[in-house]
């Protein structure tokens, strides 16, 4: 399955985010999924001084090509980029999987999601993602 991994970038500690995203990507790839995560292109974005619009413009074709969007939500802080990606996936009628840390409140995302994965820790999330299968 082709998975577009959406995440909050602004305001996050880069080292923690990199560790989390790499763990999620590794877990999904080990389960034979293909993952697009814009964070993997962060060096290119910085080198060429990409604007937020340029980052979104370069990422959305990958979302169109994906089978699902997986939203990684670990805090109550909202992310405009993530909300844009989720809205776009919703408009494309792509299944939305929301991985939401326990204790995080979402108003609309959890109701719009085709599947909600609640987790306490990254390890628990990885365990749940290793069994991820497409909605039929």
Can you give keywords for this protein?
136 residues, alpha/beta, five-stranded parallel beta sheet
Describe the structure.
The structure is a single chain. The chain is an alpha/beta fold and 136 residues long. It has a single domain (2-129), classed as Rossmann fold (3-Layer(aba) Sandwich), CATH 3.40.50. Helices cover 45% and strands 19% of the residues. It has 6 helices and 5 strands; from the N terminus they run βαβααβαβαβα. It has helices at residues 14-30, 42-47, 52-65, 80-91, 109-112, 122-129; strands at 2-7, 34-36, 68-73, 96-101, 115-119. Strands 2-1-3-4-5 form a 5-stranded parallel beta sheet, sandwiched between helices. α1 packs parallel to α6 (122-129) and α3 packs parallel to α4. The radius of gyration is 14 Å and the shape is globular. It starts with a strand and ends in a 7-residue tail after the last helix.
Shape: globular
The tally of structural domains comes to: 1
Question: What is the CATH third-level topology name?
Answer: Rossmann fold
Q: How do the strands line up in the largest sheet?
A: 2-1-3-4-5
User: Secondary-structure element order, as H and E?
Assistant: EHEHHEHEHEH
Low-confidence stretches: none
Beta-strand content estimate = 15-25%
Distance between the termini: 12 Å
In percent, how helical is the residue content?
A: 40-55%
Mean pLDDT: 91
- Rg, rounded, reads 14 Å
> How many beta strands in the DSSP annotation?
5
Number of helices: 6
Biggest beta sheet attributes: 5 strands, parallel
Query: From the helix content, strand content and strand pairing, which structural class follows?
Result: alpha/beta
The first-level CATH class name: Alpha Beta
CATH-derived architecture: 3-Layer(aba) Sandwich
């Amino acid at each position: 399955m082709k998975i577009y991994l959406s995440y909050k970038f602004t305001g996050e500690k880069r080292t923690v985010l990199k560790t989390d995203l790499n763990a999620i990507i590794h877990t999904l790839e080990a389960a034979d999924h293909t993952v697009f995560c814009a964070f993997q292109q962060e060096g290119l974005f910085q080198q060429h001084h990409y604007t937020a619009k340029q980052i979104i413009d370069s990422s959305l074709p990958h979302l169109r090509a994906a089978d699902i969007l997986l939203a990684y939500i670990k805090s109550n802080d909202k992310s405009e980029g993530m909300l844009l990606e989720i809205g776009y996936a919703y408009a494309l009628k792509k299944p939305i999987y929301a991985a939401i840390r326990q204790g995080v409140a979402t108003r609309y995302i959890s109701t719009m999601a085709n599947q909600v994965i609640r987790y306490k820790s990254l390890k628990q999330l990885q365990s749940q993602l290793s069994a991820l299968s497409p909605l039929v």
